[in-house]
Structures are given as C-alpha cells and as structure tokens.
Amino acid sequence: MSEENGIYVFCAIQTDKDESLDSVELEGVKRDVFTINYKDSAMVAAEVPMKIYHPKKDNLMMHQKVVSEVMSKNDTVIPISFGNVFQSEEDVKALLENLYPQFEKLFPAIKGKIELGLKVIGKKEYLEKMVKENPEMEKMSSSVKGKSESAAYYDRIKLGGMAQKLFTSLQEEMKREIFEPLEETAEAAKANDPSSETMLLNAAFLIDRDKEELFDQKVNEAHEKWKDKVDFQYSGPWPAYNFVNIRLKVEEAG
C-alpha cells in the first residue's frame, strides 16, 4: 500500500470469514469495501486517500450506505463513528486486537438488536397556544412589545426564563406520555438533549429485531394521539450508536 493511502473503517461485525461488500463511491472514486479480521471479529473497511474527511452530506451518506448494507446481512453490528482513517491494515488489526475484550462483551449484548430514533417537534400553532394559555407569559410578552429594546431588556430575560420553564414542562410531558410507554418495549432507551428550540423529545431506542413491528405500532399509536400538536421524525434502523461507547484513536493501533 502506498504511503498516500490509508484504511477507512465503517463498523465492526461478528464473523470469522473474509467478506467483500459492494463498492462505495467516495469523492467521485469507487472504493472496494472489505473486512479486516481478528478471531471472530472484523472491521468493515475501504482503502482511501490518507486525509481528514469532513462530515459533509455526500461523505455521511457514503458512510451510512455501507453500514446499511452491512446491517442487511449481519445481525450484530458495532457502529464506528464517521471519519476514522488508519495508516494500514496492520494498524486496524492491532486496534481490533486491543478492542477484542470489549467486543467479546458487546457482541452478545447487541446481537439481533437495532437502534430506532424518534424526534418529537412541537408544531408552531400548538406552542403558540401553550404560550397564550399561560397568562403570565402572555402579559409579559405584550409588555415587551410596547417597549424599546433597551427598556425591555430585563423583561426579555424574564420572558426567556418563562419560555424555558414552559418548554421544560412540555419536554417532561412528552417524556412521560411518549418516551416512557415506548421504553417498555425496548431493550434500552435514551433521551438525549433536544437539538433545536422546538424539539420536545430526542430519543433513541435499542430494539430486538423481532419486536420492531410491535414498536412501530406503538410509535404509530402515539403519533395518532399527538399528531395535531407535534410532528414525529422516526428513523432507522441504525446500529446501536447511542448504546455502544467505542472510541477509536489512531494511536491505539500502534
């Protein structure tokens, strides 16, 4: 392998066979995807130019495409975050050897399991209605409108505090009404911090593949109940990104 090339890793799987997968296009060039094996574990990898890869849309989609293909053929997939490039196959093998004690525990824990994501976004009309139904907030909001920016400075801070309190109470309601009932069907569940102002729930669920249909049904029931107030963004299946804590560093392979 030339010095200019390195090995990009997508995910790890449980297999003792060398496997080749469909090629993938990275920055306009087709790359073969293959496995690098150690005992009954393997990294799914491709040979790529040795450089930093930025998480722009095409690159992220390339990563996801490979992981999705791997998931369609393997029931035990350990996710690896985007952008990890190692100098050589030998480095990846050394890394696999270092990680193997962790993998021995992780493989049985996530065998046959997938991650599903659910984001709940408050609809504008619903959020506005909640503000109007809060007399204190409505009064403060009207008072701010009638003042200059400098005169309303402290009122705005107070209004911001009230809005935060309202959103926190709505987020707690979504956790109680949507997250907790879904958690009962999941092997594990995690409520992450919301990633936007109107997001009321940002959850990930680890599901047994055999229960995916039942879980979908529960999500649909929750959506039916709340669809006038919120939008659902339901995604997956993914490997268990939120439930596996694997940190790869190039120096670990040394």
Automatic annotation (TrEMBL):
Pfam family, one: GvpL_GvpF
Keywords from the named record: Gas vesicle
Subcellular location: Gas vesicle
Family designation: Belongs to the gas vesicle GvpF/GvpL family.
PANTHER family: PROTEIN GVPL 2
Protein name: GvpL/GvpF family gas vesicle protein
Natural source organism: Rossellomorea oryzaecorticis
Organism taxonomic ancestry: Bacteria, Bacillati, Bacillota, Bacilli, Bacillales
